[in-house]
From TrEMBL:
Residues 4-60 form the RNase H type-1 domain. This is RNase H type-1 domain-containing protein. InterPro entries: RNaseH_domain, RNaseH_sf. It comes from the Eukaryota. It comes from Brassica carinata.
């Protein structure tokens, strides 16, 4: 099972089908298409303030062009 967490609540709600956001409809379609390749994928909202370590790592990755694969 894959768990995908995001601090973008609008995106998570759109992926889950709770709401429609016209400005990200293409992204949502791509995410649904890619996630259909996995047996089980769950999307969850996770506030940025609750995940300071991951947020800092993401910022550093963009600043240094570092690629981290886990």
């Amino acid at each position: 099972m894959w768990l995908v967490c995001s601090d973008n609540q609008t995106l998570i709600r759109a992926i889950s089908g709770e709401t429609q956001a016209k400005e990200i409809i293409g992204i949502v379609k791509d995410i649904r298409s890619i996630s259909s390749e996995f047996a089980t994928v769950s999307f969850s909202f996770f506030p940025r303030s609750a995940n300071v370590v991951a947020d800092d790592l993401a910022k550093r990755t963009f600043q240094t062009s570092l690629l981290i694969v886990t």
